[in-house]
Write a structure and sequence with these properties.
The protein is of the alpha/beta class. It has a single domain, classed as 3-Layer(aba) Sandwich (Rossmann fold), CATH 3.40.50. Helix content is 46%, strand content 19%. The chain has five helices and seven strands, in the order βαβαβββαβαβα. The protein has a five-stranded parallel sheet with strand order 2-1-3-6-7, sandwiched between helices. Strands 4-5 form a two-stranded antiparallel ribbon. Helix 2 packs parallel to helix 3. The longest helix has 17 residues. It is globular, with a radius of gyration of 14 Å. The chain starts with a strand and ends with a helix.
Length: 127
């Protein structure tokens, strides 16, 4: 399963590429941090049991004053464990300047091809 904390309209070409190349992968879009928080709270037990659980989030959720570190903290609070989390942002350089000490396990991408490779890499580990 792929939890994508963003609008499905944000990158339709990447979404289509993932769906085309991995038709059995369920993509669960949660448009806001709060939507994702509710989903994770409601499904934490099932998520812990999943072999595949990849998350993509934005760097910042401006309207909610939340960022990717809040997503990481939510995973910790719910005991979801170490799962792959990618931050998909407009500028990797700016994000790394603002947050030089990334939480363990976070990968940052500003290129859709690199984000696709991240997804593929983690799916390949489970085959």
């Amino acid at each position: 399963m792929l939890l994508w904390i963003d609008s499905p309209k944000n990158d339709p070409q990447l979404t289509e590429a993932v769906q085309t190349n991995y038709p059995s992968l369920k993509i669960n879009f949660q448009p806001t941090y709060q939507d994702a928080r509710k989903y994770l709270n409601d499904n934490a037990y099932d998520i812990r049991k999943r072999e595949i659980f990849i998350t993509i989030c934005r760097a910042y959720y401006t309207k909610e004053s939340k960022c990717f570190t809040d997503v990481v903290q939510l995973f910790r609070d719910l005991g979801i464990g170490n799962r792959p989390i990618a931050v998909y942002t407009l500028s990797k350089i700016i994000l790394l300047e603002k947050t030089p000490d990334l939480p363990t396990g976070i990968e940052v991408y500003d290129n859709p091809d690199e984000l696709f490779a991240f997804i593929s890499r983690y799916l390949a580990k489970t085959i």
